[in-house]
Amino acid sequence: MKYTKITAGILMGAALLLSACDSDLDNNPTLQTPTTFKLNTPAYSNANLDLKSSSALAFSWSQPDYEFPAAATYQMQIGKTDKAADWTVSTDVDGAVDAGTANYANVGDGATSCTTSVSATDVATALEQIYKWSDNAVPATQTFYARVRAVYAGDTCYSNIVPVTVIPYYVELADAAIDEWYLIGACIGDGKWSNNTNVIGTSVLPMYPEPGQEYNKKTGVGVLTYTGYFGAGEHFKIIHYLDNWVNTTDVVCNGWVFRDGGNDPGDITFDKAGYYKITLDPTNRTCTYKKVDDQNPAVYSEMDCAGDFNSWSTTTAMTPVNTFAGAKNHDWYFDIDASAGATTAKFLSNQSWDVNWGNTDFPWGAGTNGGSNIPVKAGKWRVFFNDITGQYHFIAQ
Q1: pLDDT tens profile 188-226
Q2: Can you point out the beta strands (E) in 101-175?
Q3: CA-wise closest residue to 185 among 205, 169, 168
Q4: End-to-end alpha-carbon separation of the chain, Å?
Q5: Is the peptide bond before 363 cis (omega within 30 degrees of 0)?
Q6: Using an 8 Å Cβ cutoff, are 305 and 396 in contact?
Q7: Is the pTM of this model over 0.85?
Q8: How do beta strands 142-152 and 162-167 pair?
Q9: What's the CA gap between 247 and 6, in Å, rounded?
Q10: Taken in order 335, 337, 341, 343, is the CA torsion positive or negative?
Q11: What is the pLDDT of residues 106-121, one digit of tens each?
């Protein structure tokens, strides 16, 4: 009898355990596909926050109802109306800002938690792009509309839209800086294959933006070229990032192919020595070369930089880039400190105005002999100059 009671108890316990497991299985989380979620109205939404004197705008929201804590990614967005159907063209779309078709903007960095902070300058810039304000035409106050985009497991949903009223200001808009790619190798710079950011001009050489090409205003991506002398069998590569070879996949290698992972196919070499023009198209992932017509360009022993910044002195020497043994150098660099205000610049050879280069384009272009003064904007710049093509490129420091 006692044995029977014990057995019955064990069976009952097993039944309860099975029932609990069944219940637990029934409540295992399954991914839901929410259609919206709640963005909280900021406390400052009606306070006429002055963007010019503010550092950042904080936002917070509740996670979309995925039925479990999900590692979603979030992006703040601001638009012109509280109707989601009107948010059709982002300022990220190439040409949308200039055409006046952009009606919303992604602002701030992406977030992985339910809070973020967006710089006031980022908001002011986005408002100016959306509304196409010109200087002296910025309204005293402006109500914009904010929402959050959430993405998880391929599913995208948007929060409610909340109004925020601010005091905007005019921001001097500028296109993104050129997305740089660099030459590196035994026949570049000092030939040491060093690729830290502090050896730009010493061991690595930025390629030049090409006149007549269009560059993405948001990313700076576009066609880059380089014209110079290469000896037979001299080894080099073209790299995108300067990071001590930590990121080695975005590199143009042997066969003029982009390395997108896998083993390194080796270095680029030319079978025959000569002057070549290399054309890199990062968008279409192509890199090509051709031998240039002039195989005997002038080789200068000195290149100088003159302008308002040095009272047009003709003795301010630029630094040669290619200094490896046997180099035929045609690239030069010089640091201009124009932090006190805008200035001008031109390039001249051997301390003489007999051969000099200038143009009205900034921060890059192609100078012509006897051309105009280059209008250099305020800031600190390292300018690179190629004396074969006249191409120059001012890179902000």
Answers
A1: 999 999 998 999 999 999 999 999 999 987 789 999 999
A2: 104-111, 115-119, 142-152, 155-158, 162-167
A3: 205
A4: 91
A5: yes
A6: no
A7: no
A8: antiparallel
A9: 67
A10: negative
A11: 999 889 999 999 999 9
